[in-house]
């Protein structure tokens, strides 16, 4: 039995992966932001679980919430075999930038800084496992942006913001962090990043959209990959026997190329440094 933490386990791919892993006999730690939706997801996951899953509340845009969640996890398990940083915000209705109490743009805080800090805080639990894995998530949409770069001098600058730009900017950072984590852990941890294609949204997510956005999104949603299939991708990676298939893989677990900027060693080190500073210089187990 593996201990597996999954952020965003209350819906979409995260919920499907949590269901599959719990049904296969693993101990799932479901990290969710919304208490009501989290409790509903926990009941769903545990309906077929061999071992009961646990609900851990966390808001990845809030460092204090991440610290509390990490403490709760340490009280729940003695080690962590797998961390799946699945949760992300991509709300197209946020036409203007929103900022956290710490002054960070919301997409950057939730989709990059939050997972970065959570991984650091959980690194002692991961280090206590025999063969720990970290699974991060990027987007196939980056294929259309071969020249995308980290805007080091504009990380929280509202002038260039749009939901799409902010989302893919943070996803590039997730790929680069995956590469850096593998290097810094020096064989003590394996990390991979999944290039997720367009995912079919759950009906409640579609229903919550403004009517115009819902109508525009409908054709894309019909063509999108079912969340169940991608949940299986996560589950396969989480339980992978042997070396992971690569640092950056597609939904079929085939190694793929990342945007060129991700291979710039100096840029990766700079990203790590600014991420450390922005999250309070957390201590890592490696």
From TrEMBL:
Gene3D superfamilies assigned to the protein according to its UniProt record, in alphabetical order? NAD(P)-binding Rossmann-like Domain
Pfam families xrefs: adh_short
Keywords, sorted A to Z: Oxidoreductase
In the UniProt record, does the keyword Oxidoreductase occur? yes
Q: Which GO terms describe its molecular function?
A: oxidoreductase activity
Name the record gives this protein: Short-chain dehydrogenase
Organism this protein belongs to? Nonomuraea aridisoli
């Amino acid at each position: 039995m593996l201990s597996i933490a999954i952020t965003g386990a209350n819906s979409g791919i995260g919920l499907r992966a949590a269901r599959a892993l719990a049904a296969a006999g693993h101990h799932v730690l479901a990290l969710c932001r919304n208490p009501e939706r989290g409790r509903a997801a926990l009941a769903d996951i545990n309906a077929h679980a061999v071992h009961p899953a646990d609900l851990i509340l966390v808001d990845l845009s809030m460092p204090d919430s991440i610290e509390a969640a990490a403490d709760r996890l340490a009280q729940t398990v003695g080690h962590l075999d797998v961390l799946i940083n699945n949760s992300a915000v991509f709300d197209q209705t946020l036409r203007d930038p929103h900022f956290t109490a710490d002054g960070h743009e919301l997409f950057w805080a939730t989709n990059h800084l939050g997972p970065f800090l959570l991984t650091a805080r959980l690194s002692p639990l991961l280090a206590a496992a025999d063969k720990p894995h970290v699974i991060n998530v990027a987007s196939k949409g980056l294929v259309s942006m071969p020249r995308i770069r980290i805007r080091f001098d504009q990380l929280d600058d509202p002038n260039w913001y749009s939901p799409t730009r902010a989302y893919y900017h943070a996803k590039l950072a997730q790929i680069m962090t995956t590469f850096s984590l593998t290097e810094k852990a020096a064989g003590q941890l394996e990390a991979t990043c999944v290039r997720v294609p367009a995912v079919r949204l759950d009906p409640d997510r579609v229903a919550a959209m403004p009517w115009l956005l819902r109508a525009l999104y409908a054709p894309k949603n019909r063509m999108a990959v079912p969340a169940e299939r991608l949940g299986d991708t996560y589950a396969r990676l989480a339980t992978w026997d042997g070396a992971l298939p690569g640092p950056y893989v597609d939904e079929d677990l085939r190694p793929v190329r990342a945007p060129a900027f991700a291979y710039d060693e100096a840029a990766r080190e700079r990203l790590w440094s600014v991420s450390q500073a922005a999250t309070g210089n957390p201590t890592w187990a490696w």
